[in-house]
Amino acid sequence: MTNSRDSNSVSNEKVGDSDKPSHFDLSRRGFIGGTSAALLAAKSTSVKAQENSESVGVEPEVANVPKTAITVTVNGASHQTVVEDRWTLNEFLRDHLELTGSKIGCNRGECGSCTVLVDGEPVYSCSTLAVWADGKEILTVEGLEKDGQLSVLQQAFMEHNAPQCGFCTSGQLMSATALLEENPEPTVDEVRHALAGNLCRCSNYNAIVEAVMDASKTGGA
Amino acid sequence: MKTFTNQNPGTVDEAIELVRTAREDGHSVSFAGGGTDLLQLVKERVVNRSGQDVPDVLVNLKSLEGVDQVSFSSLGGVAIGGLTTLSNLANNPRILDDYKVLAEAAGQVGTPQIRNAGTLAGNVCQRPWCWYYRNGFPCYKAGGNECFSIAGENQLHAIFGGGPSFIVHPSDVAPALVALDATFNVAGPSGNRVISSSDFFVLPRDNVQHENVLSDDEFLISVDLPAPPNGLKSTYHKVMDRDAWTHALVSVAVVMEMDGDICSAVKIVLGGVAPEPWRVPSAEALLIGNVVTEELARSVGEAAVSGARPLAKNAYKIPLVRGVVARTVLALATSV
Ligand SMILES: Cc1cc2nc3c(=O)[nH]c(=O)nc-3n(C[C@H](O)[C@H](O)[C@H](O)COP(=O)(O)OP(=O)(O)OC[C@H]3O[C@@H](n4cnc5c(N)ncnc54)[C@H](O)[C@@H]3O)c2cc1C
Ligand code: FES
Ligand code: FES
Fold first, then answer.
1. CATH C-level class of B5-60
2. Which among B3, B62, B113 is the nearest to A66, CB-wise?
3. Hey, what CATH topology would domain A67-217 get?
């Protein structure tokens, strides 16, 4: 849908070099994250509150943080890069590759908006580490369109108004993509089962299931 | 997240060596399977087994060679690598045929995403999901000396075997493994050991901080299941307050050997009701040597709740257990 060119353009770039500020420090997200971290820190001088504020935005750069070199394929492009051991896969994708299609809703395995495919299987990118993705193939929503064409499933999502606010959509698309890859003609129950790990807080489930059923009839993911 | 070092051992011996070195350097260690439980604990800085909020070293067991497979032995039993994902377990055709209770239990954990990442060992060793423990209360599980559920919100807590902590054991897979008479193969710096599933889990009265007999340096490598006898039937029934993505309010694993219409052997193990998988021998005894009728199934359900001691807000679990046990036993015995 968005950004697939960008994802290729950052390939092979070294990231996470802690003594250099990274180039997106002034992005909107970085700004918001930094602001809320500052607000939190201002409210409380306790160490715990300041440490907790880390989770609000991009991690502050810290020297001597354990790092590991990994090779990972993201949306078909190979990345040789260095990641901090503590980065979740989602932090790596969003904050360091700037693939912001997968979302953080809960950051604790309870919403599904961060779903990406690892070696073809949907997982919560908030609940796995980037260093564990070494040698794996990652597919994010940015990798679904091919040559400027939305995937059949993306097209069906549009036609059925499957996104309302759209926050859960990328996660729903990834779970449904994996389903149709494995089972091109699912029943409605099988679709529901496959999407059971993706909440939609707009509660647009019927339209989402219809879109997946429709895509399956028009020929796959 | 606070920092830690991730280590990727290639072999069990390397993993043991990493633990030993970390210990000598005064570092705490956590083992990681899929991380679906562990990373939530680390992010929230929930106090872990070794009494620290964040481990210094994560030993990533997924990098071990050859421990993520299901292998069937020529003698008829099966060895399941501890790092086998729950999805692979739930979809394995022979597990589905011979040990259905295990496939059904694994297939009802959380969501597809949790089952794709979550491992057998991680499921069995997951920490309690008591809301006090998970939200930073200094309870017994966090090294404190209080169980906040006793006078607090105890809707999801234990009706059997509680005290001084009233957590319930959260694993869906554990009751199935106990019902199947599994044995656990464990490795650690002081040697390997084999532990029967009936000895693996511990009640708070014996060890208030830990849910199993593993030392902080030991990890689960694999699980063995005995060959299924002829006429073995099994099933897992899980009751949730929604259809997916949550632990059991009450669950039951039933493994039954049938001789024609007669039940010749049975194990009934409850989940969601006690700090360890909870076997109910007095209910099992009623079944042996008998044809399972509706009336008998009802008495079995009644026997399953004998000795239950509910807290202020979880007495609803008693009729739930009664009904679920009766219904599951009858359905299994009369299934073809
Ligand atoms: C939203 C949500 C819903 C869930 N629902 C369910 C559910 O319905 N049923 C259920 O059973 N579980 C549920 N879980 C719990 C858990 O995530 C899964 O059970 C999963 O199987 C854990 O496996 P893992 O490999 O990801 O474990 P990890 O997170 O890697 O590890 C879990 C714990 O076990 C320890 N550990 C891991 N491997 C080993 C080993 N080999 N030896 C010794 N210790 C080890 C870790 O140090 C950690 O303390 C849920 C979790 C979430 C976040
Ligand atoms: S952000 Fe990962 S499941 Fe909610
Ligand atoms: S469209 Fe809003 S959360 Fe699903």
1. alpha beta
2. B3
3. Ubiquitin-like (UB roll) (3.10.20)
CA–centroid distance, residue A168 to ligand 3 (Å): 5
Collect all residues of chain A within an 8 Å Cβ-Cβ radius of residue B58. Answer: 85
Cis peptide bond N-terminal to B275, omega within 30: no
- Testing ligand 1's pocket by substitution, the residue of B114, B211, B247 carrying the most ligand atoms inside 8 A of its CB is B114
Task: Give B64 to chain A, closest Cα distance, Å.
Answer: 12
CB–CB of B244/A197 below 8 Å? yes
Dist. CA B40–CA B45, nearest whole Å: 8
3-state secondary structure of A42: helix
Check: CATH 3.40.640.10 for B232-333?
no
Say yes or no for a CB contact (<8 Å) between A108 and B40. yes
What is the interface pTM, i.e. ipTM, of the complex?
0.96
B22-53 pLDDT per residue, tens: 999 999 999 999 999 999 999 988 887 777 77
A97 and B14 Cβ atoms separated by less than 8 Å: no
One-character DSSP codes across B189-223:
TT--EEEEHHHHB--TTT-SS-SBS--TT-EEEEE
* pTM, entire model: 0.90
Predicted local confidence at residue A26, as pLDDT: 39
Domain boundaries along the sequence of chain B: 5-60, 232-333
User: Which residues in chain B are closer than 8 Å to A175, comparing Cβ atoms?
Assistant: 112-113
Q: Could you say which of A85, A108, A109 has the minimum Cβ distance to residue B4?
A: A85
pLDDT tens, residue by residue, B172-185: 999 999 999 999 99
Helix (H, G, I), strand (E, B) or coil at B119: strand
